[in-house]
Design a protein that fits this description.
Elements lengths: L9 E6 L3 H13 L6 E7 L8 H9 L4 E7 L16 E4 L4 H6 L7 E6 L1 H13 L7 E5 L30 E4 L4 E4 L7 H7 L18 E5 L2 E3 L11 E2 L4 E3 L3 E3 L2
Parallel strand pairs: 1-2, 1-5, 2-3, 3-4, 5-6, 7-13
Antiparallel strand pairs: 7-8, 9-11, 9-13, 10-12
Bound molecules: FE2/S2 (inorganic) cluster (FES).
Length: 253
């Protein structure tokens, strides 16, 4: 899920924390001083949960042919005076397929979509009905992957949450796909144990650094291994079953 090297228009669609990978693409376009036509379209609940709002506004401002649309879905949200902020075009409500077609994304554009599966299938259908071919529509699910927990008969229930007991005082640990940030505590032996304490969907088998089932991209930060893995994971990946954070970390989990 990376920006194709092309000169055609680009449309970046995201919902909630799915903004993360497409924001990286917006950074790339700004860094290259791209003259491509760019659509930045984000949907979230309300301004309080609008991640990277200012960063995205500044990046869009650096692109001469970019336009930006934000959909706030909270029923109680009230759209401010048009033009009061000079920022993106703000719309109240869900992004309908008609609204996607009205964005005017041309048929030769490459579209990148990241968010929950329902969001992506709706936007994909709308873009296809606007003339984009399926090969120009690139998607990435941004949500937790299904757990692999061999032998566990009563999986954790409910949504990810802060770990039980007093908050840790160590480095911050953010589970990006699950949208949860907490602090490391020495009461946990490994990052995997902390994730389990938060009911983050986890994937493991050996729990000793042998099988690599738990391999997870480490987006930022550093860890150290409490048991050294049999084989090192690839660069940019970690094994949470046998590691602890030494700095603030952002895990793709
Ligand atoms: S669970 Fe086997 S290496 Fe982590």
């Amino acid at each position: 899920f990376v920006l194709a090297d092309a000169r055609t228009p680009v449309a970046l669609f995201s919902a909630g924390i799915g903004v993360t990978p497409v924001l990286a693409m917006l950074h790339q376009l700004a860094r290259e001083h791209s003259s491509r036509a760019v659509w930045w379209v984000h949907t979230t609940r309300d301004p309080g949960r609008h991640a990277f709002a200012e960063e995205a506004r500044q990046l869009v401002g650096r692109l001469p042919h970019a336009r930006s649309f934000v959909y706030y879905t909270a029923p109680e949200y009230t759209v401010p005076d048009p033009g009061a902020t000079g920022g993106p075009c703000v719309i109240h409500g869900r992004m309908t397929s008609g609204a996607v077609r009205e964005l005017g994304v041309p048929a030769d554009a490459h579209a990148y979509l990241c968010g929950p599966t329902g969001f992506m299938s709706d936007v994909t259908s709308a873009l296809q009905s606007a003339g984009l071919s399926g090969s120009n529509i690139h998607t990435e699910v941004f949500g937790a992957l299904a757990a692999i927990n061999p032998g566990v008969t009563s999986p954790g229930t409910g949504r990810p949450h802060q770990p039980p007991g007093p908050q840790g005082t160590g480095p911050s640990v953010t589970f990006a796909r699950s949208g949860l940030s907490t602090h490391w505590s020495d009461q946990y032996a490994t990052l995997l144990e902390l994730a389990e304490g938060c009911d983050i969907p986890t994937r493991w088998s050996c729990r000793t650094g042998v099988c690599h089932t738990c391999t997870t991209p480490l987006l930022t930060g550093q860890v150290q291994y409490t048991t050294h893995p049999l084989e090192d994971p690839d660069p940019g990946e970690v094994l949470p079953c046998c590691s602890v954070p030494t700095t603030d970390v952002l895990l793709d989990l």
